[in-house]
């Protein structure tokens, strides 16, 4: 005990003390203090949760459903999820042993990495990426191995770069396509190559499919459904984005029983179960929420088209994203760094967008703009950004 105290610099565990805070949060603390800001910042749907889903939550309370559920989650919800994945994703899971309901995809990611990684083992993931990935890996005492994705490649990950990053410590490839923050999707060829690499090196693939419904072209199959992949893929998904249910905090993991069982061990000790009211609402979303989801998606598509055209027309090159609700324009022509651009845009034009570097080093030179905002706000923010960049021409 004395030795431990002697080596410590503070009472906070070393790997947590050195963990950076999310760049997005810092930025939005500042935004909250300002008035009349148009925010293209937080990655959250602007639609209210469809009424029938909210009503299911109200009804759940009225029925007095206020207890714990099974640690795995309500069996009826797990059955509904497995039915949905079979029909829409062409991959079959046993609801009794291969599906775990979690508190958002956030918890599912945490459980997955903790269940799969020994200290010092490596997780390969594509970057720019969701702000949590590197920190989740570090919190599990793993080693993050980011692979830069490039604009020239429409921000898809190059399978050859994954192959080159593999060492004898690599255990997991973590994928998120459609991607936050770039909106990138993979081609079937890229996905097939990644699957072959995973099989060759006996790796587990974690696929974070949180944006998969929000794909604007042809929807690709999940990597879990490719030959030889079901037994080595953990499919993570949830209700936050496509069903506009961020505050309900429901996600899930589906995969081989041994991985789900390991995740479940951590979940039962740390979380016990996801809230029953939200689980019942999620079941309603899958049973009767598809039409509402399609309507929201149609709106996102319109907004995407408009925002993408506006960025390119004003001279900020912008890849047309294949999915999610983010635009990732290139701002290097202004000579500003991502952080300078975002800070000055906020100060001079009261538009909040996130510097690309919040999503990893390879986000330098880009800005993340979320188009889960009203059309009026999108148009006004585009006018303001156009005005802002005039000074750099
Ligand atoms: N994964 C990605 C790629 C995300 O963008 C987000 C949220 O922004 C999450 C996971 C977390 O989602 P949840 O609300 O289900 O915890």
In short:
It contains 14 helices and 12 strands.
User: Shape, please?
Assistant: globular
**Model regions low in confidence, pLDDT < 50 over at least 5 residues:** none
The main β sheet shows up as: 7 strands, mixed
Treating each run of at least 4 consecutive H or I residues as one helix, how many helices? 14
In whole angstroms, the N-to-C terminal distance is 62 Å
Cofactors, ions, other ligands: pyridoxal-5'-phosphate
Give helix % range: 40-55%
Sheet/helix structural class: alpha/beta
Strands ordered across the widest β-sheet: 2-8-7-6-5-3-4
Range of strand content: 5-15%
For the secondary structure, the number of strands is 12
Topology order in helix (H) and strand (E) letters: HHHEHHEHEHEHEHEEEHHHEHEEEH
Average residue pLDDT: 95
Radius of gyration: 21 Å
């Amino acid at each position: 005990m004395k030795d431990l105290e002697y080596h410590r610099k503070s009472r906070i565990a070393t790997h947590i003390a050195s963990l950076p805070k999310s760049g997005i949060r810092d930025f939005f603390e500042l935004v909250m203090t300002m008035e009349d800001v148009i925010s293209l910042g937080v990655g959250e749907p602007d639609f209210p949760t469809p009424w029938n889903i909210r009503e299911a939550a109200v009804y759940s309370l009225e029925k007095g459903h206020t207890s714990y559920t099974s640690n795995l989650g309500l069996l009826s919800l797990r059955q509904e999820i497995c039915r949905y994945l079979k029909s829409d994703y062409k991959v079959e899971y046993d609801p009794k042993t291969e599906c775990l309901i979690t508190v958002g995809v956030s918890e599912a990611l945490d459980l997955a990495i903790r269940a799969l990684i020994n200290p010092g083992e490596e997780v390969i993931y594509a970057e720019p990426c969701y702000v949590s990935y590197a920190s989740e890996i570090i919190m599990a005492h793993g080693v993050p191995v980011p692979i830069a994705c490039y604009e020239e490649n429409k921000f898809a990950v190059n399978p050859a770069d994954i192959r080159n990053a593999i060492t004898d410590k690599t255990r997991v490839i973590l994928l998120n396509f459609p991607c936050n923050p770039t909106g990138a999707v993979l081609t079937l060829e890229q996905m097939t190559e990644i699957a072959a690499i995973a099989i060759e090196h006996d790796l587990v693939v974690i696929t974070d499919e949180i944006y998969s419904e929000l794909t604007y072209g042809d929807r690709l199959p999940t990597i879990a459904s490719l030959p030889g992949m079901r037994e080595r893929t953990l499919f993570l998904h949830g209700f936050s984005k496509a069903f506009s249910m961020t505050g309900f905090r429901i996600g899930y993991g589906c995969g081989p029983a041994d991985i789900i069982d390991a995740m479940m061990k951590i979940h039962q000790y740390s979380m016990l179960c996801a809230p029953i009211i939200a689980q019942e609402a999620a079941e309603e979303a899958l049973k009767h929420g598809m039409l509402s989801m399609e309507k929201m998606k149609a709106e996102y598509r319109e907004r995407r088209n408009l925002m993408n055209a506006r960025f390119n027309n004003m001279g900020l090159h912008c890849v047309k994203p294949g999915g999610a609700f983010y635009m990732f324009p290139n701002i290097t022509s202004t000579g500003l760094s991502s952080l300078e651009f975002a800070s000055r845009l906020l100060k001079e034009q009261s538009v909040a967008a996130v510097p690309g570097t919040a999503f990893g080093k390879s986000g330098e030179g880009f800005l993340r703009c979320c188009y889960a905002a009203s059309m009026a706000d999108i148009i006004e923010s585009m006018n303001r950004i156009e005005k802002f960049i005039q000074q750099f021409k």
